[in-house]
Amino acid sequence: MKMLAVRCLVALTLLAAVTVAFANPFKSKIISSDDSVLEITVPGDHFMKITNFTQDGGTDRAVVEVVLPGDTENGGSTNVLTATRIDFSTGVNAQNAPEIGNRVTIAGPAIVKITPIVGAKLFITYKKERDEGSGGGGVQLARP
């Protein structure tokens, strides 16, 4: 009976270790107004999911900027997401109803930049995952 318990304990320990090793948890960052620009590199075989981007304070609106390496044709960068304001005591949105947050997925290769806003705290939650590919999504034909 003791041997069975030991084997079960070893199996559960290995399963827990594999779960921790292969789990791809979300990461969160707080960006204060005195921090430097946050840059997150997304490799070519990965993508990045942003599930939360909020702003507390400040008068300007924070944005998530994506820079595509080698894309000089389109100016090289674009804003893909604006922060959801959670404090409406200052700025243009002073008496508006609460906003609804959005999510975005960014395919690599890309560089994601978030510039701090004076007088504001920004909070972002994201997860980078490996792109395993979808296999084309179409019908596969067998060759003789």
Tags for this entry?
five-stranded mixed β-sheet; mainly beta; 144 residues; four-stranded antiparallel β-sheet; extended; disordered C terminus; 1 helix
Give a structural overview.
With 144 residues, the chain is mainly β. It is built from one helix and nine strands; from the N terminus they run αβββββββββ. Strands 1, 3, 6, 7 and 9 form a five-stranded mixed β-sheet that branches. The protein has a four-stranded antiparallel β-sheet with strand order 2-8-4-5, with no helix packed on it. The protein is extended, with a radius of gyration of 22 Å. The model is unreliable at 136-144 (pLDDT under 50).
Structural class: mainly beta
Provide the gyration radius in Å.
22 Å
Strand content: 35-45%
| Spatial shape | extended
Query: How many helices?
Result: 1
Q: List the helices and strands in order.
A: HEEEEEEEEE
Integer average pLDDT: 78
Please summarize the sheet with the most strands: 5 strands, mixed
Which bin fits the share of residues in helices?
A: 10-25%
Number of strands: 9
Report, as a whole number of angstroms, the end-to-end distance. Answer: 55 Å
Low-confidence runs (pLDDT<50, min 5 residues)?
136-144
Q: What is the oligomer described by this structure?
A: single chain
Topology at a glance:
Elements: H1 2-22, E1 27-31, E2 38-42, E3 46-57, E4 63-67, E5 77-82, E6 84-85, E7 104-107, E8 110-114, E9 120-130
Parallel strand pairs: 3-6
Antiparallel strand pairs: 1-9, 2-8, 3-7, 3-9, 4-5, 4-8
